[in-house]
Automatic annotation (TrEMBL), chain A:
Belongs to the sulfur carrier protein TusA family. Transmembrane segments: none annotated. Residues 4-73 form the UPF0033 domain. Pfam families: TusA. This is UPF0033 domain-containing protein. SUPFAM superfamilies: SirA-like.
From TrEMBL, chain B:
The lineage of its organism: Archaea, Thermoproteota, Thermoprotei, Thermofilales, Thermofilaceae. InterPro entries: FAD/NAD-bd_sf, FAD/NAD-binding_dom, SQRD. This is FAD-dependent pyridine nucleotide-disulphide oxidoreductase. It comes from the Archaea. It comes from Thermofilum pendens (strain DSM 2475 / Hrk 5). GO terms for molecular function: oxidoreductase activity.
Amino acid sequence: MPEITVDARGMACPGPISALTRAYRNAQNGDLIIVLATDPGFEPDVKAWVERTKNELVELAKVDGNVIKAVIKVTAKK
Amino acid sequence: MERVVIIGGGGGGAILANLLPEEFKVTVVDKSEVHFFQPGNLWIAFKGVRKEKFLRPLRSLLKPRVEFVHDEVVSVDLNERVVKTASGKSLSYDYVVFASGAELDYGSVPGHRELLERFGDFYSTPENAEKLHASLRGLKEGRFVIGIADPVYKCPPGPHKAAFLSWEFFARRGLSDKVKVVLAVPVPHAYPSKTIADIIEPELNSRGIELHTFFTVNEVDVANKRIVSLEGEELSFDVAAVVPPHRGPSYAVNPAEVKDGSGYIKIDKYTSRVEGFDDAYAIGDCTNAPTSKSGVTAHLQAEVVAARLQGIDARYSGRTNCPLITDGKGLFVISDYDHPPIPVRLSKFKRLMEDFFVATYWSAVRSPELWSPIFRAYFEATDEFIRRGEGW
């Protein structure tokens, strides 16, 4: 399935979630959006975003020390 | 004498042109003969201020030594060092500066252009702000919705100012119980910065302004008066204004790689130098600099470029100073590349500072050399707050 990677490392809040929103606009159901971020606020923000949009959070983990990796499967686009 | 061509005579371009000394032959190219103070749109839309207050002939704002070319740029060739215009002019340069601002895209959200034509907005032009004022005067009950179609837009506090000023507009007419002001934002909180959101959310709540987060406008259905978000929600409206998606300059630039995926000119965020070129700079809203698209950014980048063209190793810190006002008080969102916005306090004094700035705008553009020491003193004093992470 197509993957869209968003490198939002170094961006302050709400940069990562804004970058996710812009990627989501161009995504289709079935796509995977992978977001890499370093802002600690991204973790609660992405959880809230997934809950609101009804998409699927496949993975949310710390990688390489302080990098937060979120993998979202797009399932709710109309 | 070195030739500098500046594309765009908005705040950044005009200030840069006026800062460059007589040793430079400076040309400003703009498709408009009129310079308008963009935040004035809010005053036109919500306070009914005459648009003429915020308009000046661009020629009158430029020093006599600056040449003004009223023409539309169609292409810039960075390898050949030439700017071409719609009327067929070819302007050769030693340095070129992109200062043409961000372009507003009303075509990418279905129904958006129809919404603009129906109600106007507080964002694009003085004429559209006048139209919105008329639309609001005709709204005696119902919902006025303010939305945003993309997280990247000029003047981050603009929609919030619009919410507070429209609330005041209806309250003064005794309509605060009949007209609901609704603010919908694409981010998780009331404002992009959580620090600022924590301050203004209670202000929105106390006025009964309805807030929707994670709401990125994706479609406008004017016939049925509803807005659909990218996140899957809907809002009904009686009058609405939506901040459109933005993009970089639409004129051609060679090599095309200097533009990013949204068309913004890729620059070094500290020096404003266009990636890969020593003789090209970009300032203000047309760049991909990771800071707010705002007048203060354009102004401070203009000062940096003016200094660098004169051989001084100046750098822009990413400093912002965006005023956010309610109906009676104000605050400034201040930050830089290395520090997030600090806690700030709403106060009547800061609202007065905003009003003072509006009053001095034309003078600051026309004679930046007189105002720069005052602004510099202010920035140096408040930089300390940012570095310490303390409010002011």
